[in-house]
Amino acid sequence: MSFSEADVQGALKNLIDPNTRKDFASGKVLKNVKIDGNNVSLDIVLGYPAKSVWDEIRAMIEAHLKAALPGSSVSVNVTSKVVQHTVQHGAKLVDGVRNIIAVASGKGGVGKSTTAVNIALALAAEGARVGMLDADIYGPSQPTMLGISGQPATDGEHFMTPMSNYGLQAMSIGFLIASDDTPMIWRGPMVTQALDQLLRQTRWDDLDYLIVDLPPGTGDIQLSLAQQVPLTGAVIVTTPQDIALMDARKGLKMFEKVGVKIVGIVENMSTHICSKCGHEEHIFGSGGGEKMCADYDTEFLGSLPLDIRIREQTDSGKPTVVSDPDGNIAKSYKQIARRIAVKVAEMAQNRTSVFPKVVVQNT
């Protein structure tokens, strides 16, 4: 029996990618179908990093095609390729960075920075090239969380080389100040200028994603940053508590007003399980994040527990995703990160690079 490319495409229309929830034929991930008698080979190029599930996806597709095409010998190669997506109108792109994702909160104390660093580490664990920009000028915490000390090197053009640990490229005002207890007594314009320098005077090296840990709140500083940083999308972190949700809604509306797409909402400190007796309790309430998503037609990316280990691991400079990569909490961070990457992959691509540049010269 001979097979055709149409047979392969028809079979893959009935197989759903568990991450994108779309079939493999219509998702534009099917590439290089080759048929030689009963031998079928093809490439699956995912638009999101998924190194940990490549083998699982490959086995699933091969088994499905062998069942749909009796007598066939099937070989599937699975890879990922992250492309650049559009940003808000008027924002200037950053060299060396394909996509910038802001992690924001309407108020402090909801675990935004901890969530941001674990999302970044989870994306890196899936094979992406990831950077972390600590935009919380008044309270930089990423140097401590990433276990990085020292100052970045600069070149002759006054560009800084990002610091690195755990496979992340990182930049923070915390690397540039004299000590951890040095206060940043700056007014708003100085803060936005400092962030612009950290963003654009760092030699980011071919990043798929730059995660930006924004300062909490929705004031003038946050609004200026949301307008100036070329954001592919924003992730809102909240707790189920009513007061936190009120401020999270303000943060979401702020991004909408400046044309930044909302990737989704993460509910932190969703539940607490007693380490002594195992009793589960919703200390800050329940269902708030999901209700907010329903109200604003955005995606609930996932929930995270209130767990002392998360605090201990980040304080020690080894966040959960790297200190306990196979644990249930790390698994939750990885699921959230993968969902963020899938949502970004579904956004409109930046097509500016495909258009020819017109150069006018005097002859």
Characterise this structure.
- It is a single chain.
- This protein has 363 residues and is an alpha/beta fold.
- Helix content is 33%, strand content 20%.
- It folds into 2 domains: 5-80, 2-Layer Sandwich (GMP Synthetase, Chain A, domain 3); 97-345, P-loop containing nucleotide triphosphate hydrolases (Rossmann fold).
- It has helices at 5-12, 54-68, 112-125, 142-145, 188-200, 220-228, 242-257, 288-296, 308-315, 320-323, 328-345; strands spanning 30-36, 39-46, 73-80, 97-104, 130-134, 163-165, 168-172, 207-213, 233-238, 262-267, 272-273, 280-281, 300-303.
- Strand 6 (163-165) and strand 7 form a beta hairpin.
- Helix 3 crosses helix 11 and helix 5 (188-200) packs parallel to helix 6 (220-228).
- The radius of gyration is 22 Å and the shape is globular.
- The chain starts with a helix and ends in an 18-residue tail after the last helix.
Quickly list its features.
363 residues, alpha/beta, GMP Synthetase, Chain A, domain 3, Rossmann fold, 2 domains, 3-stranded mixed β-sheet, 13 strands, 20% strand, globular
